[in-house]
């Protein structure tokens, strides 16, 4: 792929802007300076730099973020900033979108990609990709409440019961809940249905991918391939 096209495909501006970056000596590929915008470069396992910042080449980008509170997952937020604003400009230019949403006050693992087929695979109700949530509760969880969550509860305006794939008690007031669905405010509604209340909610796993302990709130990291999520 031509050097100019690499930068353009990775979100570094218009073709004219990408050409300018190369002519100004701001681009290296595989550790070697590139001065010709039309130079052909092998993109397999390519790591390039722009202004000395390293970037891996991905035909389709996938990143994870530890979503902080008070950010909306909408591209057109109403009351709080969009999580998209936490991504660097090249990823915003590539128009990465969240794969599913987390509420404004929900934290934890959020995935972004510009791969529409992957978003469909991760979010379509029939695909049943598990998500694990760490749920902090106002009242101590009871064995009966856990049993009911596993058997299924009927939520308002829903025709069928929804149930947890698993419900693990961490402490009296903290559980880890596994869900395959992604209904509106589902965790909060399910706990309300068993007479409890969610005071804090964090997604800690999406498919096979776990939230890294060293990924701070508001920070992001590359996901090398979809197989890290779906197996």
Output the helix-strand order: HHEEEEEHEEHEHEEHEEEH
What is the mean pLDDT? 94
**Number of helical stretches of at least 4 residues:** 7
Helix content: 10-25%
What is the tally of beta strands? 13
- Main structural class: alpha+beta
Which word captures the global form?
Answer: elongated
Q: End-to-end distance, in Å?
A: 30 Å
Radius of gyration: 21 Å
Structural summary, described in words:
- This protein is an alpha+beta fold and 231 residues long.
- Helices cover 22% and strands 26% of the residues.
- The protein has seven helices and 13 strands.
- The chain has helices spanning 3-9, 15-23, 89-93, 116-123, 143-151, 186-193, 227-230; strands at 27-29, 32-33, 47-50, 53-56, 62-67, 97-98, 107-113, 131-137, 166-171, 174-179, 198-206, 209-210, 220-222.
- Strands 5, 6, 7, 8, 9, 10, 11, 12 and 13 form a nine-stranded mixed β-sheet that branches.
- A hairpin with a 2-residue loop joins strand 11 and strand 12 (209-210).
- Helix 1 crosses helix 2.
- The longest helix has 9 residues, at 15-23.
- It is elongated.
- The protein starts with a helix and ends with a helix.
């Amino acid at each position: 792929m031509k050097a100019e096209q690499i930068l353009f495909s990775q979100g570094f501006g218009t073709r004219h802007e990408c050409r300018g970056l190369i002519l100004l000596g701001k681009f290296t590929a595989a550790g070697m300076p590139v001065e010709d915008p039309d130079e052909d470069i092998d993109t397999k396992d390519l790591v390039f730099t722009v202004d000395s910042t390293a970037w891996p080449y991905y035909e389709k980008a996938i990143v994870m973020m530890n979503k902080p509170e008070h950010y909306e997952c909408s591209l057109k937020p109403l009351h709080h900033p969009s999580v998209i604003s936490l991504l660097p400009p090249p990823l915003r230019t590539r128009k990465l979108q969240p794969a599913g949403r987390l509420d404004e006050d929900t934290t934890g693992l959020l995935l972004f990609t510009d791969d529409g087929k992957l978003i469909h695979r991760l979010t379509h109700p029939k695909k049943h990709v598990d998500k694990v949530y760490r749920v902090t509760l106002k009242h101590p969880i009871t064995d009966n409440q856990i049993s009911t969550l596993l058997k299924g509860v009927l939520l308002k305006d829903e025709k069928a019961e929804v149930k947890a794939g698993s419900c693990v008690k961490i402490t009296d007031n903290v559980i880890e809940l596994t869900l395959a669905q992604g209904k509106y405010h589902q965790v909060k509604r399910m706990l309300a249905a068993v007479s409890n209340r969610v005071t804090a909610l964090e997604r800690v796993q999406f498919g096979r991918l776990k939230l890294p302990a060293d990924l701070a709130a508001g920070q992001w990291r590359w996901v090398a391939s979809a197989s890290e999520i779906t197996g």
